[in-house]
Amino acid sequence: MEPYKKWKKKRHLRTIPEDIDIANLATTFLADKKVTEPIKKAIVKTGYDNTFKIIVFGNSEAGKTTFLRKNTKEVISRSKADKEIGIEFYTKPVILGNNRYQLQIWSFKDIDRFHLFYSTYSKGAHAGLLFFDISNLYSLANYEAWVSLVREEVDNPESFPIMMIGNKLDLEENRQVQSQQAIRMAKSMDIHGYIECSAMTGENVEKIFTVIIQKILDISQLIAS
Ligand SMILES: Nc1nc2c(ncn2[C@@H]2O[C@H](COP(=O)(O)OP(=O)(O)OP(=O)(O)O)[C@@H](O)[C@H]2O)c(=O)[nH]1
Ligand SMILES: [Mg+2]
Predict the structure, then answer these.
(1) Is residue 156 assigned to a domain?
(2) Ligand 1, closest atom to CA 69?
(3) Is 14 inside any structural domain?
(4) Which of 51, 104, 106, 128 has the fewest CB atoms within 10 Å of its CB?
């Protein structure tokens, strides 16, 4: 039986069964017209000065889906892909200076269960956003593993900007992670920036999109010069 069909039968399981060929599964998933057609339609290159691919990662419940659903255009969402394969896809137009950019945003979940898919979906990414929840210390639990995993998968890990995002700023009174503590962690992993936001209220959300574009542009200029 081909891996995608096999996976559909077994996707209720916590881990991907060993008898499923993961690389083939990821490829088949992308070859499914119900998945690829909306993605193709969404990735419109005309009308933009540039398009950038962003990957979003971080522990469960950090607020990745909420952040993206509320603030970007949902293309492949949890209703379809998230349940099946742990991957969501969104687009976001951003105007910065005189230029129009399109962000193509892939979000991953569940480091234990789905990490084998990341190489397929990280290809060609320009930057990453690492999410955690400032009101839950545990949400930072395996941030080092996430960062290492992402750096393993991208083309140029040294020049790949990753920003750490402390989400749920509206829960300030329940804060368990202090900003200084997060900044120290970010610095210790050579992460390129730290911003706190609330996916719920929208506070600082647009800033994240503009800062990440700025970081991509800065790095590409450094490489070009
Ligand atoms: N108060 C508050 N709650 C939030 C915020 N962002 C997300 N939440 C809540 O946190 C919970 C988890 O959010 P999700 O967006 O599902 O988290 P996720 O990172 O996508 O989790 P996985 O898909 O399991 O990896 C939900 O109940 C959200 O409503 C926020 O900024 N403030
Ligand atoms: Mg989610």
Answers:
(1) yes
(2) 15
(3) no
(4) 51
CB burial class (10 A; 0-12, 13-18, 19+) of residue 46? exposed
Residue 64 Cβ < 6 Å to ligand 1: yes
- Please report the pLDDT score of residue 179 as a whole number: 97
Q: How many domains does the chain have?
A: 1
* Backbone φ, ψ for residue 175 (5° rounding): -60, 130
pLDDT of residue 202: 96
Find the ligand nearest to 110 CA.
1
Q: Ligand 1 in contact with 135 (CB < 6 A)? A: no
pLDDT per position as a tens digit, 120-131:
778 889 999 999
CA 213 to ligand 2 center in whole angstroms: 23
- CATH code, domain carrying 92: 3.40.50.300
Measured between alpha carbons, how far is 106 from 68 in angstroms, rounded to an integer?
A: 10
Percent composition of the chain: helix, strand, coil (DSSP 3-state, to 5): 50, 20, 30
The predicted-structure confidence for 70-117, as pLDDT tens digits, reads as follows 999 877 654 454 455 667 889 999 999 999 999 999 888 765 555 666
pLDDT (mean) for 55-83: 79
Question: Is-above-0.90 flag for pTM?
Answer: no
For ligand 1, whether the C-beta of 136 sits within 6 Å is no
DSSP conformation class of 54: E
